Amino acid sequence: MSAIPHTATPRRDTGLYNAKVGTWLFLAAEAMFFGALVSSYVFLRSASAEWPAARDVLPVGYAVANGIVLILLATASVKARRAARAGKGPKWLWICVVLAVCSVTLVALEHRIVGATGARASTSTFYGMYYLLSGIVRIHVGGGAVVTAWIAGPCRQFADIKPIRYANWVECLGYYWLFVFATSLATFVLVYVV
Amino acid sequence: MTEGIRHSARREPGWLRRAVSCDHKVIGIQYALTALLMLFVAFCMVLMMRWQLAYPESPFPFLSNFFGEDDTRMPKGVMLPNFYNQLGAMHGTYMVFLAVVPLLVGGFGTYLVPLMLGAPNLAFPRLSRVGYLCYLAGIVIISFSFITPAGPSNSGWTGYPPLSVIETGGQTYWLVGIAFVYLSSLFLAINLITSIVQLRAPGLSLLRLPFFVWSQLVTSYLLLLAFPPLAAAAVLQLMDRLEGTSFFLPSGLVVTGKPLDASGGGSALLWQHLFWFLAHPEVYVLILPAFGIIAEVIANNTRKPLWGYKGMVVSAVFMGFMSMLVWAHHMFLTGMGTVISTFFQATTLIISIPSIIMATSLLVSLWGGSIRFTVPMLFALAFLPMFGIGGLTGLPLALSATNIVLHDTYYVIGHFHYVVAPGTLFAIFAGVYYWFPKVTGRKLNDTLGHLHFWPSLLFMNAIFIPMLLQGLAGVSRRLYDGGATYGFGQEVFFLNKAATHSAFALAIAQLPFVINFVYSLRWGKKSADNPWDATSLEWNTPSPPRFGGNFDKPPRAHRGPNEYSVPGKAKDFSPQWEPEEA
Fold first, then answer.
1. What is the ipTM of this complex?
2. B274 contacts on A by Cβ (under 8 Å)
3. Is there a domain that residue B59 lies in?
4. How far apart are CA B138 and CA B88, in angstroms?
5. Which of B:185-204 have CB within 8 Å of A?
6. pTM, whole model, 2 decimals?
7. Which end of chain B is more exposed for a tag (fewer CB within 10 A), N or C?
């Protein structure tokens, strides 16, 4: 069985290792996915006769709190990358997991409050879009939490066996969290501010 | 940095271990065989549809005894309109999403790209395996809808709302299945692009890549960037179907005389935009790898370098970029404004330029060549005029004035099928005949290959020329009975029979290929490692390449991909892996 080149060390002419290229490509596809959802939001909103102001009908406080949590999460992911490169323990990764769980919980609470007013996804395209966009972000945060916990826990042994590859994984995870933060920020601005 | 090769001292693995391995060759073969099966299934569906069009409400031959009088799809073998719609939707879905794209990218791409790069495997072997499993899951889910009481989706392969939202058939299965196919495409695209960027052998610069690899690179970018909007659209439509949202349902919709119980406020056009943002680039996903295959076959069989290789590369990249700016030419009938339609007319005409450059380069490559009329070359030569007809008949559809007249007619079916049936499928056959010796270590039989090629060329045209004629006569492409009950177009109704008989003849013409394929796997003439005297790196491996590793030692590329008939050389081919003579 032949070894695949550049799984750990960068290729000389591109300056990249494989996982970094793969992660960027994955995030490019994710950007197109979110771009399509955002375009759909803009399309439906511009074609709609009436579109409520989100500030009036949605609990903005939860969304702001969630935004702050995601800022902290993005920061923690950067710290985690530095710690991994320095060969330190997975403390920051676990902090990422905790913050991600907080974010998911906040969105769940927000949905519960909105749901208590009788607003369902089927009530109008506004609510449909609200539930969909926030739900998709929530799925991404939840999925990221699972992967982060997996890297911080069961995969931790690789930090000793293959330290460079392990640090690469953590770096790629950091790109993901930054992307999720940017996406949720864009969603927040789109739904609540614009 | 190449870390060298570790030779395994263990025994050769058994078939089960190979079957579930992450070796790109195993996965490529699995993709190819599965996709060929899907191609066969989709072809059978269209044979049933063609029978219905030629002989409306007549029992399908051989099947009338299998269906009772109370059957909800084909009572006593006579096809009902809803089942016709379901077959139409599934034919397009199977062909595009489950057969041709997985065959070209999953089969040819996964198998050949690492070999052409001089790499031991794809960059992410496990992802490759997961991608294949997602593809299988997509097939299972979409196919499962056939055995549900309501049957499969009946809203076309385009899944247009509002019908797709309110219909009770298997549209939900379709949406979930497409989501799995999307994941498969995503993983494929990530794997191929990363491999091409990262795993090229020393000396294999970008402009030394075979054109096939370039075609796979651009195709992968299209899959990567164009498929996500359809995935988003599928999520929106699933919400409409399962959660009662109205993203694609306008206000005031009345169904069978009753107001629809939905909040409304959505737009059916939104789906069309999202769908065609994928589906038009998907056309180039279907044709670019075909060009890649044809380029390799033509260069090898003319014993000449490709004429205009760099121009072809630039054209492929430009085509990939432009393909994302033409989607709304499928929507001229939706009443878009003249400014927007003018923009999309212009982009659609512009995108014909790179297509013409590539086709012309291949044509000019024949000039002065010492042509070997092998079976793969015959398919490659046939590809050029067939693609030419497909491309040229598309030009009237690029203009909104003529598009509006032709859009709902058989002309569109004829045009599109000329591109993908005698176009892409001929390229696939060319590729199968060309690389079969590398994959299996045995050659396909030439006589059977000729028996396959010539009738196929004849009957492909006999199927699709009538469609163009019917379309020009104004026959609608959405009629379950082929137009039998309409006074309109009666003078060309007989062409339905001609096309149908040709379709069945085409099916018979595939028998030599099936026999050849199966026979040659075991009893075919044994092939040398480089039976075609070819130059790209995949021919520097044993035939078939060894499981778990491709090359005896890491190869180095010393020259471009198609250096044939170099003056002063003893041989008429200079392989990439051979060092320059001192």
1. 0.95
2. 36, 39-40
3. yes
4. 18
5. 186, 189-191, 193-194, 197-199
6. 0.95
7. C
